[in-house]
Amino acid sequence: MPNEIEIKLPIKDVKSLQRTIKRLALIPVYPKTPRIHEANLLFDTPDGGLAKHGQLLRIRTETPASTTKKSTAKAPQRHLLTFKSPPESLAIGTPTRQLNPGGRYKIREETELVITDATALQKIFEGLGLRGWFRYEKYRTTYKFPARLKWAHGLLVEVDETPIGTFVELEGPGEAIDRAARELGFSHSDFIQKNYLVLYLDDCKKRGEQPTHMLFKPRASQ
């Protein structure tokens, strides 16, 4: 199973980020449909056994954001099943300190596959006693650096628009993450290892709100 090495960066000025993306000549990974809506559902046992062991089980549905409700064409969707293991389960023979100097990255083993029927799989999980307990959504636009920059090979720059703000996820080799962060105007002190569930809970606590699901508020009808 491949290791997922990543960090998040908090974005306070989206327009400034857009200018930086243009200046760095970042290239959309999916040029025809660059902005993707992600609907995520996390599963766990009734007693939270997966979370207690640092594991994550998720079904994600991706839909190109260009598709509107007024369109008669069915949105082309992709469904992904993801399982993530805790950091301590990393493969023997690759010391964590080599992958994560200074402990500044979030590293997990990740297994992911495309599925054809998310609804059927959800029913199977529920039949096995699992429950879909937390939903969160975001819009993601994924970029890469120009191919001529050898240091950036294998690195993804993912701009996430979420109900609690905009973040950039850098995923790839640690050295490339460090350099890309500098190019974007950030330092190690800005690195965030928390997942979106924890960031959402922190945001609810700050606002004095009861946590539910991290979803965008419905737009008022025109």
Written overview of the protein:
By secondary structure, the chain is α+β, with helices and mostly antiparallel strands. The chain has six helices and nine strands, in the order βαββαββαβαβββαα.
Key structural traits:
eight-stranded antiparallel β-barrel; 34% strand
Note poorly predicted spans: none
Mind describing the biggest β-sheet? 8 strands, antiparallel, barrel
* Relative strand content: 25-35%
Number of helices: 6
Mean pLDDT across all residues, rounded? 91
Q: Tell me the structural class.
A: alpha+beta
Radius of gyration from the alpha-carbon trace, in angstroms:
18 Å
Order of helices and strands: EHEEHEEHEHEEEHH
**Strand arrangement across the biggest beta sheet:** 1-6-5-4-3-7-8-9
Helix percent band = 10-25%
Alpha-carbon distance between the termini?
A: 48 Å
Q: Could you say which overall geometry the principal axes of the C-alpha atoms support?
A: globular
β-strand number: 9
Short description:
Helices cover 23% and strands 34% of the residues. The protein contains six helices and nine strands.
